[in-house]
């Protein structure tokens, strides 16, 4: 009995997220029977692939007590840059590698400024956001189409799931799931993961314990840069184009997803699994609105706002109550 | 020689000097690369020119910066100012042409130069909507104890949705001429917006420097807990700061919607939260809270505005401007960082002392 209680207290926010997801999905299924089809569920992954990827990177950053506002703009930058490079007939694999390196590089630079110059992460990544979006428009002011066989292949190949008829996902969708599993293992069962949590709880004590704070911080921001570049590739593959105006204010969706997923913005607590459900809740609201057809998109924003509020309430119930003396 | 050093020290320690220096640098740049920049003319009895543009177009940003300074001084941040601007603008537009519910509004009603509501009431409703938003933020931060960034993020995400709800999802064009007075009007050849800004600035200055509220705000920003134990209601100080910020954003929304003759819930006041925060940062107020200077933030906002207009003048496309702004912020960050301060201190003052980087 006691064990169950500790389990509930420990995983409360995560369980609440999952419960709300199931609840919202059930309501949707009741209202629109078509939503019970497995493909609708898989569409959540397909449509939110890039949001999931940046949210995973964001989760790690937030657990460490930081924040990364540059992710949305990085998606735009890497989509435009890859489209422009592909127009010049570069090898698509090489383009992808270049994009990922660019993401890691920009994340690394931001991490350096945050750590060594002791500037607020919020201000630095805001600058990164401006820079990335501006550079995206410098590369090309209008939308660039991608006409590349390899990209077409990635975008249009359906992978059918076993046991479900007519249920499929696309290849880029898998990137998010692989990254999710990787990050889950990274955070839960490696020394690096423990260091991230330690820094998020108290950077000073982490430093005094002899943990590699500087290295970890740089790696985490580079990782977030990597994630956003990867999300940019996924984004450009699914739309087969690149444009500087893509993924406008997506960083806010990512932060909302992370918060809804039960990660505290104060750092130190949270799981990447919760983030998955945060993203899915975001997606299910959009799906319900689409099935309804008469409600307009602004309800998504209000819905996400209200849910964020509810989850912050739940969090303060679980975490803040515990932290206060 | 000694006198010169002390003058320099005085300059270095003044809070206004850095932002003023930045403004001066941009002006020097303009003087060299954009010769027509300082030209002032009089058209139809109005002053006219790039400099007037800076203060006229910059008025909403200055207002946001004033509100933001108060919030940041308490150790918080308000991300919702852009959304509040949209809500305030939507409120004004909808009261001129009511568009509640799902009823379709015929074009001939919309394009008439009449208002369904008296102008005074519209202004009051605008301000009330924004102030209510600020109150909500303040309530979440001070009473519900939510981190400022998250608390205001909620309104930032939901606010534009609410604004669209108010305007029924339409981009509402305003045809009611008296409403344009706030954004396009002139008194004695000077834009009305400037008078509004001066009025709000005077109000804020009286509030923080002639009463003890300013002191309370700074003390909350430095240490909220010890402020509480010294018998000051830190909750109410925070509540006041966020409410004031909402009020300022509401006026900004009024001026902006009146300036562009419309209320577009998705785009009006876009990125104002970022520009507002940058203004305060350039003004030298620490993001961690504590000492603040309204005048420095105002100059910070003008620096951003001047920089923007300068970039337009020398032909940088609007979209690429963001990258240029990023470089500006990077320079400011580097200048304001502890390392840079240490280097300057070591260079000019503490020559005899051991260097501690």
From TrEMBL, chain A:
Assigned keywords, A-Z: Cell membrane, Membrane, Transmembrane, Transmembrane helix
A cellular component annotation (GO) from this entry: plasma membrane
Membrane topology field: Multi-pass membrane protein
Subcellular location: Cell membrane
TM ranges: 12-32, 44-63, 93-117, 167-187, 218-240, 298-320
Broad class of the protein's primary localization: membrane
A matching Pfam family: BPD_transp_2
Record protein name field: Monosaccharide ABC transporter membrane protein (CUT2 family)
InterPro entries in the cross-refs: ABC_transp_permease
A single MF term (Gene Ontology): transmembrane transporter activity
TrEMBL record, chain B:
Xref: InterPro entries: ABC_transp_permease
Annotated signal sequence range: none
Protein's UniProt keywords contain Transmembrane: yes
Membrane topology field: Multi-pass membrane protein
UniProt GO MF annotations: transmembrane transporter activity
Transmembrane segments: 20-42, 54-72, 79-100, 120-141, 148-166, 186-208, 239-260, 280-304, 316-336
Highest taxon, organism lineage: Bacteria
Subcellular location: Cell membrane
GO cellular component annotations of the record: plasma membrane
Protein keywords: Cell membrane, Membrane, Transmembrane, Transmembrane helix
Coiled-coil regions, chain positions: none
Protein name per UniProt: Monosaccharide ABC transporter membrane protein (CUT2 family)
